[in-house]
């Protein structure tokens, strides 16, 4: 199992070692990450189509994802509410930011598009099974594994060249405290949910270690534990982002740490415009640092926990 961890971590480390001096190269790298995510989620949908009793399995997937989401969110919201009362972080004057989403529905479209890709993969898998009799499910899993290696290398490169120096991360005590609180409470939730989902303790922890990075957590879990649990991890973390879009405008004025923290890893990208729009520019560096720390921790932590 240790060799499997090293094989998957190696692309991430190699990508992190690459320093991009010309900013123009980051555009194709970012596009490569997005394309890889769509390809892997499509292949994950194809693999889901190969499960026996697909209807029953999808029903199980939904119920498990809902249970995992409820337990982890309860732990997250409780811990972040406690932190909000002690941290003293306040939001600035709300202002409409150029490029920020004009509605919650507009902000959710990117997330819903990924769900549509998984559904399309299931449909394609069923059609392939009907046409060929086999569905090429094993081939889909193999292709997803190789695309995953490329994705991890590109993500490592993104993290190295994100412009976030270590000094800035360590000195931002608000972002650091929020990230550690969200991470610890998520892992506690995963540990509590593990027996309810009939999972080993380390698998429960791994399912919770996506910290909202649904595109990556679903892929990593699916590669190690199969497409069903990969789907559970994906929809658990996706539900976090969808709830964050609704929660942030409602609570950021009174509980800024809770609003920023609940977005998890997405607070540095997908939910950042909503945080900026409703919390002001003072919340931006805190959100970016918190999201960056969780994004940096998530992939190696998931892989490490799955080897225990």
Write the layout of secondary structure elements.
Elements: H1 2-16, H2 26-49, H3 54-87, H4 104-132, H5 137-160, H6 166-171, H7 173-196, H8 201-208, H9 214-225, H10 227-251, H11 256-262, H12 272-279, H13 284-306
Keywords: Membrane, Transmembrane, Transmembrane helix
Pfam families: Lys_export (PF03956)
Transmembrane segments: 35-54, 66-84, 104-131, 143-162, 174-197, 242-262, 283-306
Mean pLDDT: 82
Total strands:
0
* Computed structural class: mainly alpha
Question: What does the largest sheet look like?
Answer: none
The general outline is globular
In DSSP terms (H or I, runs of 4 or more residues), the helix count works out at 13
Strand percentage lies at under 5%
Provide the helix percentage: over 70%
What gap, in angstroms, lies between the N and C termini? 8 Å
The radius of gyration over CA amounts to 19 Å
Order of helices and strands: HHHHHHHHHHHHH
Outline the low-pLDDT stretches: 93-102
Structural commentary:
This protein has helices at residues 2-16, 26-49, 54-87, 104-132, 137-160, 166-171, 173-196, 201-208, 214-225, 227-251, 256-262, 272-279, 284-306. The chain is mostly helical and 308 residues long. The protein is globular. Residues 93-102 have low confidence and may be disordered. This is Lysine exporter LysO family protein.
């Amino acid at each position: 199992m240790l060799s499997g961890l090293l094989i998957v971590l190696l692309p991430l480390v190699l990508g992190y070692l690459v320093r991009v001096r010309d900013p123009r190269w980051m555009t194709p790298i970012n596009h490569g990450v997005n394309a890889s995510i769509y390809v892997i989620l499509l292949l994950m949908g194809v693999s889901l189509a190969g499960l026996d009793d697909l209807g029953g399995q999808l029903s199980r997937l939904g119920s498990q994802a809902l249970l995992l989401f409820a337990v982890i969110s309860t732990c997250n919201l409780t811990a972040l509410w406690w932190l909000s009362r002690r941290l003293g972080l306040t939001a600035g004057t709300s202002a409409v930011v150029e490029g920020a989403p004009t509605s919650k529905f507009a902000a959710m479209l990117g997330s819903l598009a990924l769900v549509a890709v998984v559904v399309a993969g299931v449909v394609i898998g069923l059609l392939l099974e009907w046409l060929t009799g086999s569905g090429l499910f094993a081939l889909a899993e193999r292709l997803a594994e190789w695309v995953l290696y490329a994705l991890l290398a590109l993500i490592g490169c993104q993290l190295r060249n994100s412009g976030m120096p270590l000094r800035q991360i360590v000195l931002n005590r608000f972002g650091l405290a929020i990230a550690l609180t969200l991470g610890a409470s998520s892992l506690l939730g995963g540990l509590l949910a593990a027996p309810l989902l009939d999972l080993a303790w380390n698998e429960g922890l791994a399912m919770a270690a996506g910290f909202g990075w649904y595109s990556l957590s679903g892929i990593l879990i699916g590669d190690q534990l199969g497409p069903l649990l990969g789907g559970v991890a994906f929809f658990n973390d996706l539900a976090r982002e969808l709830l964050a879009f609704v929660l942030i405008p409602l609570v950021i004025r009174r509980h800024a740490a809770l609003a920023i923290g609940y977005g998890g890893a997405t607070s540095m990208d997908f939910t950042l415009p909503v945080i900026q729009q409703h919390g002001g520019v003072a919340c931006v560096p805190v959100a970016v640092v918190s999201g960056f720390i969780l994004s940096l921790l998530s992939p190696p932590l998931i892989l490490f926990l799955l080897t225990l």
